[in-house]
Batch of 2 targets.
Target 1
Amino acid sequence: MGLFRKKAQPLEVARIGNPVLRQKADLVDPRSIGGDDLAQLVDEMIATMDAEGGIGIAAPQVSRSISLAVIEIPVDSARYPDSEPFELEVFINPSITILDEQEQEYWEGCLSVPDLRGLVPRPRKVQVDYLALDGDSRSIVAEGFLATVLQHELDHLDGVLFIDRMRDMTKLATLEEYRTYWLDSTDAPSLDD
Ligand code: ZN
């Protein structure tokens, strides 16, 4: 979508226990869209996502409680070899609609919940309506992995973490134990964001 990757400094990531992760984010003021301050924050969020190796990041994860998230699933992702790539996109004031209640499961991780993976059931198909960085209204319909990534990121805007969505806490593991006991024994790929 023609977003530049400007040089920006990564921001500190808020970790679980920080109350900012549990707040409902405020809507982004439409008057700030297209402005330098918002663009700067987006650049810093992208730099943070890159530095931490994530495929998405929400503003509350950098201690800004506003309704803003960024997602990018790289083409050549060694970590997510089965996933369709998704070009860098900025989601401002997104709203989500579940299009198919049938659930799918992926192992999720989160920059704000370091060193853990958990198997999370979520609806398999969603629609997200949002404003892009240029202020345009956009809509996306997503299934599979991208549907889970979108739900994970947008949950951050409601103060919800992936562990809240888990139903079987025996499927919560440290990264090391995940690799030892679960990685080869499950069809569900994992994501980190
Ligand atoms: Zn997360």
Target 2
Amino acid sequence: MINMIKGDITTLKVDAIVNAANNSLLGGDGVDGAIHRAAGPGLVEECRKLGGCPTGEARITKGYRLPAEWIIHTIGPIWLGGSNEEDRLLSMCYKSCFELVEQNGITSVAFPSISTGAYGFPIERAGRIAFKEMCNFKSNHESIEVIAVCFNDHVYDCYRKVMKETR
Ligand code: AR6
């Protein structure tokens, strides 16, 4: 089962939270800005050493001042109308994050709704992709907790609808 909660991902006491970052990995607005603010300056220092990240891939850093031990930074696609590999790239984000979850022995991971803010991906379509990938992973990793974090009512309502469909 995928857990779904409404709230601010930076407050969660889990092994890892996922950041919806940009290719520079050096911070931005939205959830990225919130994570950098809460983690403190150690985070951008470590990120600088990573030298960026291509869309669809993921990188891991420490959590610094966050309650979470790790931050998995992934780069979602910018929505360009839907025929520019957006679906495939968004699926790749989730897969890339789960690879790092496995490699680092992470037992709980929380995801924001990648690409659905500044990057403009339609929320229901993104939610279907998110739940498909989360359910795929859960079917082989029952003991790992996977949390979908909804920052506002709109995301929450869309995710609930999608979750019902996929049940
Ligand atoms: N906790 C959980 N979810 C959040 C939080 C939070 N504290 N803050 C926002 N969200 P966005 P993107 C939700 O724009 O679309 C940045 O500038 C928000 O409601 O953060 O992938 C990066 O540097 C939305 O549903 O990420 C990139 O340049 C979701 O997080 C760009 O934005 C994603 O919105 C990435 O855009």
